[in-house]
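Researcher: I'd like a candidate sequence for this fold, 212 residues long. If you have to choose between options at a position, lean toward the conservative one.
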């Protein structure tokens, strides 16, 4: 009986160790995504995000460390080019391009594996810097905002090889700007926003991941 128990225990331990080794064969994920984000909500009281931009063409980079076959933690950084609304000529529009920068920590849940389909869900918390520019006949003014944000992203991942994954990503990021700054010829102000109101970015893109 004792020998049988030892044999069963040994088999369970070896099986668990093998399963863990397979799940942890790659410890690190690095990813890059390119997409377009649509704006919603407010910059502050009386001013909408959509008043100053049509949306963002956004590049995002991330890195994550595997804690288990299911969970990973890491960081993400994003840079989006804000397409301006307040411009009259092509040259003014180029000069009026703004930006949105995010830096955050993320947690990633790997939902499972269905043949080559490996979907995952990201939760992200961090800080955001948004700037909108307006150029008119060579005179440029800018409005800058910053504040905390939270994000949620669903990744429809398809495994191309042992180390590479590719697929669509749908994400939403929401936050509240706490600080506003205005710059114009002869004018420079920086203060808290006039009313803490939420804003939202809804983005759709494609994401590539390498595992190491």
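Model: Candidate sequence:
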């Amino acid at each position: 009986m004792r020998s049988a128990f030892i044999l069963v225990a040994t088999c369970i331990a070896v099986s668990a160790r093998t399963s863990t080794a397979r799940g942890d064969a790659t410890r690190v994920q690095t990813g890059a995504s390119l997409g377009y984000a649509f704006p919603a909500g407010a910059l502050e009281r009386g001013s909408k995000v959509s008043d100053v931009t049509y949306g963002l063409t956004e590049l995002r980079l991330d890195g994550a460390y595997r804690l288990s076959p299911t969970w990973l933690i890491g960081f993400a950084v994003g840079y989006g080019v804000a397409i301006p609304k307040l411009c009259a000529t092509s040259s003014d529009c180029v000069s009026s391009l703004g930006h949105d920068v995010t830096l955050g920590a993320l947690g990633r849940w790997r939902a499972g594996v269905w043949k080559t389909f490996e979907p995952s869900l990201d939760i992200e918390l961090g800080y955001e810097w948004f700037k909108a520019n307006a150029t008119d006949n060579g005179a440029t003014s800018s409005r800058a905002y910053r504040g905390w944000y939270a994000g949620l992203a669903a990744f429809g991942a398809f495994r191309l090889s042992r180390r590479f994954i590719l697929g669509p990503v749908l994400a939403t990021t929401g936050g509240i700007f706490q600080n506003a700054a205005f710059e114009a010829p002869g004018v420079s102000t920086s203060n808290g926003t006039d009313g803490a109101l939420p804003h939202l970015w809804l983005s759709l893109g494609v994401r590539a991941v390498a595992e190491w």
